[in-house]
Amino acid sequence: MSDTDAIRDKVRALAFWRGRVDPQPLTGGITNTNFRVEDDGRHFVVRVGADIPEHGILRAAELAASRAAHAAGVSPAVRHAEPGILVLDYIEGRTYGADDVRADIERVAALVRRAHHGVPLHLRGPAPAFWVFHVVRDYAHRLTEARFRLGGEIPRYLNVAARLEAAVGPVDIVFGHNDLLPANFLDDGTRLWLIDWDYGGFNSPLFDLGGLASNNGFSAEEAERLLALYFGAPPDETRRRAFQAMLTASLLREAMWSMVSEIHSPIDFDYRAYTHENLARFEAALAAFNEMDRR
Q1: Which residues fall in a coiled-coil region (predicted)?
Q2: How far apart are CA 204 and CA 224, in angstroms?
């Protein structure tokens, strides 16, 4: 029996179901194993995954954020939860790609802003912070201890991160999603939804905005529009520089996330290729940041 079959059997056996179910795997997840389930005429998504301390993922925090995001009107409802398993309403709609995000910047920016300020109004219990520079430093320790194949580059990454952190400067605090990949936006034909709160935590809004731009291939003009839409006014040079620093840091974090996943993740995914893809994007963003500092 494969791991997926064993997990499917576990999902099938949940006491939550009203009848016999046949969980169907959903593709694309590189942190969880996900299924679509039809039960008594209703459709659900089941997310299966334990805590992942290497990435700071705590399922109790994800559950609290998911419930708060639903109460804030930005995410589907949580219908059942138990350790390592989350059952949510299935949203019938179109999963966004990067082109869709870029073509819908106005609604995307409004949704992200609504999540940032609405989710903390409904959040219960302890809540994590997500500070990308802490994450990078923690990853650096883990990779050094594991004698990772790119270990010789880690001192440079830490030096760059320190410079980017100084460039960000003082920040406002919101409740960030912190993983704004295009597939985390769904369009049901009437409205947008924001899903998957594994990394939810208090943070600067610039991290989500930088991640949104970097994960979806925004041009400089599109990034400028995103900032203007989110903040209600065109950005000044200080905000542009802080934004570029966070965008660059988001790509360094994504590359180092993949490095750590190369070591620890049991999921069948080409993390090595993903590492090199994100390192290339990080170097390009860093070059743009350096050019900004030279002007």
Answers
A1: none
A2: 18
Pairing assessment for the beta strands 85-89 and 42-48 based on DSSP bridges: antiparallel
Shared-domain flag, residues 123 and 72? no
DSSP assignment of 76-101 equals PPEEEEETTEEEEE---SEEP-HHHH
Domain boundary among the residues 48, 66, 89 is at 89
Same domain, 120 and 250: yes
Per-residue pLDDT tens listing for the chain (295 residues): 467 788 999 999 999 999 999 999 998 777 788 999 999 999 999 999 999 999 999 999 999 999 999 999 999 999 999 999 999 999 999 999 999 999 999 999 999 999 999 999 999 999 899 999 999 999 999 999 999 999 999 999 999 999 999 999 999 999 999 999 999 999 999 999 999 999 999 999 999 999 999 999 999 999 999 999 999 999 999 999 999 999 999 999 999 999 999 999 888 889 999 999 999 999 999 999 999 988 7
What is the bridge-based pairing of β-strands 185-187 and 42-48?
unpaired
Range of the domain at 51: 3-89
